[in-house]
Design brief:
Elements (H helix, E strand, L loop, with lengths): L7 H16 L17 H16 L3 E8 L2 E12 L4 E2 L6 E2 L4 H14 L24 H6 L13 H7 L3 H10 L14 H15 L3 H13 L18 E4 L2 E4 L9 H4 L2 E2 L1 H12 L6 H7 L18 E5 L2 E10 L2 E8 L4 E7 L6 H13 L9
Length: 376
C-alpha cells in the first residue's frame, strides 16, 4: 500500500534548512544570476518552473506573483491529469496541506478578539476530557512548543487517513502519548497541535471547523475556490506520488485525518486574496496579526523563526511570512514580503516536489533583476 498521510511534518524541517541555504544571499542562483537578466516576468518565471518540473518530475503546477492583492503574473504549466492529459489552468484547485494552519491560527485569533478564548489559556480549559498537561497553552499549540507527539506518525494513522477518524480518537491518542519535552521549553513541528486547535475552535464556537472557516474567512473574502471538503473533481488536479522519473496517482486522504492541520484545498487566485487580506487587517486586527508574526521565544529547528501558523524569515533582508504544505499527491508554498505585499504562490500536484525552492528561485529572478525589481 502506498504511504498515506500528511508529509508536512517531515518536510518542514528540511525545507526550512533549504530555504536558509538558498535565501541567505538573495534566493540562490536563478536565470538572472548569470548572463543577461530577464526583461519580463514570464522570462524570469518560466525558465525556473520548466527546469524544476523536468528535474523534479512535476506533472502540473500553477504559479502566481502578486502585489497587494493585484495579480502581476499567473501561469499554469503541465497537466492536472496525466491520463487524460488535461492541461492545468490558472484556476485549477490543489490540496495545500499545512498552509491550512494559517487559516486555523487566524480563526483562533478571531475568537480571541471576541473574548471567547485567550491564547495563554490552558488547553484543559477547553478540552478537559483529554487530560492534557495543564501547562500546555493555546499559544504553545500555535507555535509548536507544546511537546505533543505528531499524530501523523502514529501507527494507526494510515488507516485513519484511508477510512476516516473521529476527533476523540486522535485526541485521546495524542494526550496519552509521552511528551517530546517539557511544554514551552523547545520547538518541534507537530500536526497534533493544530488538530487540537481545530477541536478547541469547535468547542468555543459551537459550530464545526468548516463552518468557522466559512463564517470568518471564506465568505467575507469571497474565497469561492477554497474548500475544506474535497473540491469538485472537474476543477481540481489529481495528486501524484513517486519520484522524478515515475509518478502514480496518490491515495486521497479522508478530510477527517488532516482536519485543522492540513485539510484545505485552494488555487493561486484565492491564496493571493488570502495573503493580501491577512497582511492588511482584513482577516484579523493589526494587534492579532502582530501576535501571529512574533517569533516564538525558543530555538526553532534550522534557525528559522515561527509565529502562529506562519514561518518567519527574511528575503534579501526583508521580513517575509511563508509556509509550505505537503499531503498525499500535492505540495504548496506561499511567500509574502511584508514591506511591499509582494507575494509568490506555487502549487504542484506531486508530493515529490520542493515548491519552496522553486518559489525562492522565482523571487530571486524577479527581485534581483534591475528591470523587474520594482515588482517586489
Amino acid at each position: 500500500m502506498k504511504r498515506v498521510g500528511l508529509r508536512r511534518l517531515s518536510s518542514f524541517s528540511w525545507l526550512i534548512g533549504l530555504a536558509i541555504a538558498t535565501s541567505g544571499c538573495g534566493g540562490g542562483r536563478s536565470p538572472s544570476s548569470s548572463g543577461s537578466q530577464p526583461t519580463s516576468l514570464s522570462g524570469a518565471v518560466d525558465p525556473v518552473v520548466k527546469t524544476a518540473m523536468q528535474q523534479q518530475g512535476i506533472p502540473g503546477m500553477t504559479v502566481a506573483l502578486a502585489k497587494n492583492g493585484s495579480m502581476l503574473y499567473v501561469q499554469a504549466y503541465g497537466v492536472s491529469d496525466t491520463v487524460t492529459h488535461l492541461a492545468a489552468q490558472p484556476g485549477t484547485t490543489f490540496e495545500i496541506g499545512s498552509i491550512t494552519k494559517q487559516f486555523t491560527a487566524a480563526v483562533i485569533m478571531k475568537l480571541q478578539e471576541q473574548g471567547k478564548l485567550h491564547v495563554d489559556d490552558s488547553v484543559n480549559t477547553y478540552l478537559p476530557e483529554y487530560k492534557f498537561p495543564a501547562a500546555i497553552t493555546l499559544r504553545m499549540l500555535l507555535t509548536h512548543t507544546a511537546g505533543l507527539a505528531n499524530y501523523t506518525g502514529f501507527a494507526p494513522y494510515p488507516g485513519w487517513a484511508v477510512n476516516g477518524v473521529s476527533e476523540a480518537t486522535v485526541l485521546n491518542a495524542v494526550s496519552q502519548a509521552p511528551l517530546l519535552f517539557t511544554p514551552g521549553t523547545q520547538w518541534s513541528y507537530s500536526n497534533s497541535n493544530y488538530f487540537a486547535l481545530g477541536a478547541i475552535i469547535e468547542k468555543v464556537s459551537g459550530q464545526s471547523y468548516p463552518e468557522n472557516l466559512a463564517e470568518y474567512i471564506f465568505q467575507p473574502l469571497a474565497l469561492t475556490n477554497t474548500y475544506y471538503s474535497l473540491p469538485p473533481s472537474g476543477q481540481s488536479a489529481i495528486g501524484y506520488t513517486g519520484n522524478a522519473s515515475y509518478q502514480e496517482p496518490a491515495l486521497v486522504v479522508d478530510r477527517s485525518a488532516p482536519f485543522a492541520a492540513g485539510a484545505l484545498s485552494s488555487n493561486v487566485n484565492d491564496l493571493v486574496t488570502w495573503d493580501n487580506a491577512l497582511i492588511h487587517g482584513k482577516v484579523v486586527t493589526t494587534a492579532s496579526f502582530a501576535a501571529m508574526t512574533t517569533p516564538v521565544g525558543v530555538s526553532v529547528t534550522a534557525g528559522t523563526p515561527y509565529g502562529f501558523g506562519l514561518g518567519l524569515r527574511t528575503f534579501n533582508g526583508r521580513p517575509t511570512i511563508w509556509h509550505n504544505g505537503a499531503i498525499n499527491g500535492f505540495t504548496a508554498d506561499t511567500n509574502v514580503l511584508l514591506d511591499t505585499g509582494f507575494a509568490v504562490v506555487v502549487l504542484t500536484n506531486t508530493d515529490a516536489a520542493n515548491p519552496d525552492a522553486i518559489a525562492l528561485q522565482i523571487m530571486s529572478a524577479v527581485c534581483n533583476s534591475s528591470q523587474l525589481s520594482s515588482n517586489c
